[in-house]
Each structure stands twice: as structure tokens, then as C-alpha cells.
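It is worth pausing here to work through a concrete case rather than discussing structure prediction in the abstract. The textbook approach is simple: state the sequence, then state the predicted structure, then interpret. We follow exactly that order.
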Amino acid sequence: MDTDRRHRHFLLTLVGLFLMVWGALAIDPFDRHDWLLENLLVFGLALALLLAHKHYLPSRSAATLIFLYLCVHQLGAHYTYANVPYDDWWRSLTGEGLNERMGWERNQFDRLAHFSYGLLLAYPIRELLIRLGLRPGLWALILPVDIVLSTSAVYELIEWWGGEILGDGLGRKFLATQDDRWDPQKDMAVATLGAIIAMMVTATANRAIRSRY
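Step two, the predicted structure:
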């Protein structure tokens, strides 16, 4: 019982920390309409976790990964994904631009966010599948990657649909393609790569744990 209480306290602490991050980044965002659209994802995930909390509480590892992903997402929502000033931050620390050093011609924060989606959420997806009855094993490593890829594709379709409805102004900010016609495919690819890396790390860690016993 004491362990369960500590676990719930840990989860509530993460919720409190996220609310602080959310509140700070909700102040004077780059574009309030885009911020509201981007936060539909956060509101949807929060509602799902709230409705399911009596049946499913994420482990500490899964909850921490979800927290980190949502923080990345909120940063993108505050500035809009195409305008996160990471290059300016890097320049202030090192004296040179990261984009120039890496040979990038566009803002790459949206790529980081999609990569983080796979890297940080594949493990919580795997945990949920196992809680629902999936046996740990090969399929418990393959299905999270498949779900990340399929949900990424659905999200890109939603972005396309939303961009068409919103028009050139807000739609362009919401899509954040930065005139890259292959942007949706690249976003799906980096999300899938992140999920593959996460499942490889999970498989390696599980194998190491089993070898100790």
C-alpha cells in the first residue's frame, strides 16, 4: 500500500511539474490560435489518462517519458514548431549557429519533436499493450513501432485536413512544412526511427536484466 502511495505521489509530482511548464509556456505564445490547436493533443491525452486512471497508471519510467515528450511538444506549441529559436540558444552558448555548423537550411525542431514522439512514447505504448494482455516478446517490440508509424500517418493526414480548412495563414503555421514537399514522409520516418531505437534499448535492457538471474 505504501509503494502504491509513493507511486501516485510521483505521478502527481510529474503532473504538477508539467502544469508549471504548461502555464509558463501558455504566456504570450508566438501565435495563440496555433497554440490552441497544438494543445488539442495535450488535452486529448490528459482526458484519456484521467478516464483510465482507475484501470491503468503508467510506471515511473513510462510517466517520465510521457512528461518529457509533452514538454518538447509544449515548447513547439509556444513558439510554433517552425520558429523555436534553438539556433539562437546554441549561438549564445557556443558563439556559432547550430544550423550553420550542421549544414541545415531549415528549422529542425519539428524533426526533433517527431523523433521524440517515437523515442519517448514507444515504451509507454509497449507497457500499455502488455497491461492489456500482450505477452512480452517479439510482438511487444514490433507493435509499438507499428503504432508509432500508423499514428504518425494519421496525424499527418489530420494536419493536411486541418491545413486545408485553416487556409494559407494559420494553416501554414500549423503544418510547419517550411516548403519541404517531403515533410510528412520525413516526419513519419524520424518518428519510426525513434521508436525502433527505443525498442532496441528496451530489448537490450530486458536481456541484461534476465542475464542477472
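Step three, interpretation. DSSP finds nine helices and no strands in the chain. Residues 152 and 188 are 6 Å apart (CA to CA).
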